[in-house]
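Per reviewer request, we include the raw input and output of the structure prediction for the construct analysed in the revised manuscript.
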Amino acid sequence: MITQARVASEPFPPEPASVPAARRFLRAFLDGADRADLFDAAELALSEIATNSVLHAHTPFHVSAGLRDDGSLRVEVLDRNSQLPAQRQYTDTATTGRGMGLVSALADDCGVDPLEDGGKIVWFVVRGGVAGDTDEDALLAAWDIDLDLDIEDADDPARSEVVLLALPPTLWLAAREHHDALLRELALHAAAHPDQAPPAHRFAQADLARGLISTGVLASLGQAQADAQAHRTLPPGHPSPLPDTPTHLDVRINVEADVAGAFAALQDLLDTAERLAANGRLLARPGLPEVVAVRDWACEQAIAQLSGVAPAPFHGAHDERFTARDAYPNGAPAVDWDASEIAASSRGAVAADDANRIIAISRPLAKALGWDADDLVGRRIVALIPASLREAHVAGFTRHLTTGQAHALGVPLRLPVLRADGTTVECDFLVEQAAAPAGRRVYVAWIEPLTAGRNAQDDHTL
C-alpha cells in the first residue's frame, strides 16, 4: 500500500471513459505537486493498467498516487477481480497482449498484490523519465506469476484435469489472438450499449477459461520446442512468420473442478461477438470456421470432461464441411464485387473475399484443377489447399484479418494446389489485394500450374 505523506486517490466505474478520466486525475495530482516530469511515463503505464481493469476485471477500480521521500511516484490500481494479470506472449503482429511489457518498459518497478478479501492491487513506480531497461522476464518475475501448470496438487479432490488431445497449435495460436480481439471489442460494445451487455461476471469467467487454455497450450508448446519436436509448417521460402510447431499437442490442464461454467461463458461470449462482427457491429472480422471449430471443441471438451466424459481428440481442420459452399458462421454476407474480369480471364486466376470464399475462378484454371468453375464459386478457398497446408493457411489468414499484416501479398510463391480428384499440382502463385467496398477485402491469386497432378498422400513431404 502507499504510505507516503503526499497521496491522492479516486474511484472509477468499469467503463472505457474511466481510462482518460484516470489519466486526468493523475495529471492533476502531479501538476499540483509540481512534478509534471513524471507524467509521460506514468500516464502510459496507468492507461495500460486501467484499460486492463475495464476490459478484464469488470469491477469498479480505485486509482491511488503517492510521491515518496526519494521523489519517486507510486501508482496503484485496485479492483475486485482476483484473477492476476499474465504474460500473453503474442506474435510481433498481434494487436493486443502487450500491456505488461509496456508497463515494464515504462516503470522502474511494478508488481501485483493479491488481496485477502478478494481482488488485487496492480502497481508501478516511476522515478523520472522512461526506465526502458526492464525486460519481459524481469517483469514476469516482478509480478511473481508462475506459469507452471503443475503447481497444484493433482490429487486434490477440488481439482480436476482436462486433456485436450491432438490440439492443433498453429491454428490455436492464431485463434486465441482473434478471440482476444473479439472479446476486447465485445467489452467496448457492451460499455456503449449497457442494455444489451452480457453480465460482467461472464466476462470474468471467460477470461479465466481463456487464460487456462492459453497457459496450458503455451507450456506444452514450449516443452515440445525444447524437445525438438517442432517443425516448420510451410514449404521452404514461404515468407510466413508462423512459428515452428509440432503437428499436434496433447495439452493437460489442472483446473478447479467447478469451472465448467467459465468455459461455457467463453463459448457464449465468443458466439455473441461473432454475431456482432458478422453484422458489422465490431471492428474485428468474424472468425473463419476452423477458428470457431477449434475453440468450440476446446470449450466443449473442458465442459464434458469436468462432468466425467472421456477426452476426445480434435479431428482437424480437414473436415469436408469447411470446403462446402457458404461454410461460414453467423451468416457473414458475401462481398459485393464485380468478378466478371476474373471469370472471363484466359489466365489462371481465382478471387476470394475476406470470408475466404471463392467469388470467381477462371475457367482454364478450374479445368486444370478438375473442377467446373460454377461448382467452385461459393466454396471456401481451402477446397483448393492440400490438407497438410490447410491449418497454416487458416492461421495466416486469420492473423492477416486480425492485424492487417500481409506477408504473402505480392510475393511470388510456388505451392501445391489440390485438384478435385485429391491429387495435387505444383503451381506458381502471385496473390494481390484488389479494390473492394469499404470495410471489405478481396484477394486475387494468379496461378500457373507447372506439373501433372501427384498423389495427395505425399503432402506430408512438403
